[in-house]
Amino acid sequence: MTRKIHLALHPYGVGGPGQHGLWRDPSIAKNASIDIGYYIQQAQAAEHALFDALFIVDSQFIDPTYPAHYLNRLEPLTLLSAVATHTKHIGLVGTASSTYNSPFNLARRFGSLDHISGGRAGWNVVTSFDTGTSRNYGLDEHLDYTTRYGRALEAVRVIQGLWDSYEDDAFPADVERGVFLDPEKLHALNHVGEHFRVDGPLNLSRSPQGQPVIFQAGVSEEGRNFAAQVAEGIYAPAGPLDQARAYYEDIKRRTAAAGRDPEHIKIFIHAGPIVRATDDEARRRAREIFEEDNDFDRDLALLGRAFGAHDFSQYDLDAPFPDVAHLAERGGRTAAAKIIERARTEGLTLRQVVEASFGQKQSPFVGAPGTVADAIEHWFAAGTFDGLNLAFRNNEDLERFVDGVVPLLQKRGLFRTEYESGTLRGNLGLPVPVNRHTRERSLVDA
Amino acid sequence: MTRKIHLALHPYGVGGPGQHGLWRDPSIAKNASIDIGYYIQQAQAAEHALFDALFIVDSQFIDPTYPAHYLNRLEPLTLLSAVATHTKHIGLVGTASSTYNSPFNLARRFGSLDHISGGRAGWNVVTSFDTGTSRNYGLDEHLDYTTRYGRALEAVRVIQGLWDSYEDDAFPADVERGVFLDPEKLHALNHVGEHFRVDGPLNLSRSPQGQPVIFQAGVSEEGRNFAAQVAEGIYAPAGPLDQARAYYEDIKRRTAAAGRDPEHIKIFIHAGPIVRATDDEARRRAREIFEEDNDFDRDLALLGRAFGAHDFSQYDLDAPFPDVAHLAERGGRTAAAKIIERARTEGLTLRQVVEASFGQKQSPFVGAPGTVADAIEHWFAAGTFDGLNLAFRNNEDLERFVDGVVPLLQKRGLFRTEYESGTLRGNLGLPVPVNRHTRERSLVDA
């Protein structure tokens, strides 16, 4: 069996980063990001095209300079629960912060989505890098990187423990014997760790896929180790092909080193394909978008975001990159350290840093359907991804990809022609985890 | 215009308190409490009958003795978001604890439900009385009553502040001027209080009803004062008629004393009507249910729940009620103090206390449709409620009420014949709160 490509859709409503001007598009409703009808339509279109998942990103802090979609959008779990009953096969991956939610609440909410969707839930674990977020949750200081990732790892393990509170046969519901619950099959967790103390049990049973799928987004050292230990899916930026391949190999190696099957972590990279009838037309459209969305002042503010909302407009744009190393830990984002390193080794000015880091990137997937299918096949064969997390500017662009590129990928045996399963695990080729208590019991019995 | 009765439906899946044996009913699916299809069907049936709201209770702690519905149920906000897109008029009231959720997260989730439902969300604020809950959230000791209610009041005010982050005209989305957001209409909260520090703003605009409706359930002194200050709806136990009337008058008086219009707090009492073709048949059915559900040992465990999971089986059942006053604050429930007081003044044994406090209660709404309609009219005219929060044992019982009693209430002008509005506020006759910043601005301009 040929390895197959997985596809996810990443809807950006009125426009996220790299699509700041999207709200001006007359084909996009001005309230798309808070309109559940928009998300249902996106999910149904993606499901019609046999995509693996709808992927909903999130943040809990805004200022007025942020992209339109960030300013006013639905909370991912409420959003996905509403989408769930209007779809049957597509996975529903929601972002939630392990820094600003308690494990018991996250376990219940993702567990509930998993039941509502019949086993299609995924949790994209983030630790929240916006410094300002902490002040929406009563903390004076943003937690540093190591603390946030330590907390994230412990949170995932606690939550997975809570998801196993009930063994699969815990509810005989036997009227004759008068037994609804078999109390032997209900297990407290009694977790005491560095960041959390959680007794359990959770008041919710397991879903058809056993447990929601754990996703993770992040490229830092801490993020990679976290992924290797617990992630079953990754959402990564693409970058140039060599960089994507190195990242892919590194994650698979670390996962194997952590004692896990590297096939059980699926790496999705971000892609924003531009498909038109001809290569020329597609390239023209790409250039048009580049010019439309280019905004140096906005990108200067985005640079500040990576350094704890630092104001870079105070510096000379054409002087060497200022000494802001002390702010990198406060912002806490790996991006900050990378920016500093690159500015130093390449001797860049502030202006050059902004253009290199936040300016519009050219997608490698621009062209006629055949060209884009070729490029996707090339990147896939080169070992850069297991799946693509696709963002389109509007429905027409989504349709052009679905009608033009998907059939070519199918013809080449690179994409499914029907869903393998009704669960997210089933479609991603991930195993259903056996309940830990059932496993222990079977080990004792053996 | 005659005052009208409001009706809510309170689905209990496989059986909550007072319906412990419900899971044995062959007409109820054994997985009803985790089946979103069950809740959608209940909501649609209630909407078809023009009910004001679907009311979802909640808890975050279980032990194996708890009623079947408690053991394994969906989280209310995920549940209601899924129900929202399958209904058009009915209000969606979800329970969430102000003790174990951060205000920013609650504001986003209820705000999102309010958008998804087009302005039909309500938040039933609870402070969580199960002692064991604290150990699912990392706390050694359960917070005491006063702290929990102080925190609840501050949480509601913070959340209402966050819901006003955007004024209603904050998003001109004017392509010509290139203005999506008018930053003057976005407001940080910068709250610093005893329990919370929350900067804001919230990344979500207001819904068609302005803000979700605040409900509260509780009869303690703290609960009543909390209600008088911020609640717009109350869910109270019924008790005998005199007690319900005294409660009703007390709440309305306190609300007026707090400077609010007493019409802007709607008091719902719990009701479990039993409707049959004749009074005799209904009374027979009531007796049958009483006998089916009677379980002294279970009720003894329930008594323990009010005293911080204390084990009462260690005492002589026929000796005077034991001295457990020191446990009442730990359990923290007003019920505990009331039980002690009653045992003392009436000189009850432990067995008598259990039977009086947790034994099956006879509903005042038992009989043929005309009898039940008469009783409801009598209680309503006596000033005991604005609405009934109805629990039925199964769909047949719901249908008997809807088909038999509702048309009689309509004929008497006591219940609506069509929805007044598409929002929960509109149907409850509650005003849409003007955004506080818009109000301030208009005061300054005047």
Helix content of chain A: 40-55%
The averaged pLDDT of chain A comes out at: 92
Largest interface: A-B, 65 and 65 residues
CATH topology of the largest domain in chain A: TIM Barrel
H-E string of chain A:
EHEHHEHEHEEEHEHEEHHHHHEHEHHH
Low-pLDDT ranges of chain A: none
Q: Which CATH class of the largest domain in chain A is shown?
A: Alpha Beta
By secondary-structure content and strand pairing, the structural class of chain A works out as alpha/beta
How would you write the strand order of the largest sheet of chain A? 1-2-3-4-7-8-9-12
Number of helices of chain A: 16
Gyration radius of chain A, to the nearest Å?
A: 22 Å
CATH architecture of the largest domain in chain A: Alpha-Beta Barrel
- Would you identify the CATH H-level superfamily of the largest domain in chain A? Luciferase-like domain
> Strand-residue fraction of chain A?
5-15%
Distance between the termini of chain A: 34 Å
